[in-house]
Amino acid sequence: MNRPRCFVAVALGLVIGGPACLGARAWLRAAAPGTPVAGAASAAQPHTHPIQQIPVVPDELLGRRVTRRDGIGAAHDAVGTASREAQAFFDQGLAYMHGYVWVEAARSLREALRHDPGLAMAHVALSLVYTELNLPDRAGDALARATALSGGMSAHDRQHLAVRQAQVAAEAAPRDAERLTAFRTAIERAVAAFPRDVELLLARGIAESSDPADRAQGAVAAGIPYFEQALAIAPGHAGAHHYLTHACENATRLTEAVRHAAAFAAAAPAIPHAQHMHGHALRRSGRIHEAIVAFEAAHALEVAYFRAEQVQPGQEWHHEHNLDLLAASYRYVGQMAKAGQLLETAFNTPSALAVQLFNKREWPEFLIAQGRTADALTAAGVLAGHPVTLIKATGHIEAARAMMAAKRFAPAAASANAALRALRTAADGAALVGPAFEAMQGEFFLRTGQRDKGRSMLQAVVAQLRAAPGPDNWAQALFAIEAMGRAARESDDWEFAAWAADQMLAHDALYAGSHFAAALVAEHNKQADRARAAYARAAALWQQADADLPERRLAMARGK
Question: pLDDT tens-digit profile of 362-382?
Answer without folding.
Answer: 999 999 999 999 999 999 999
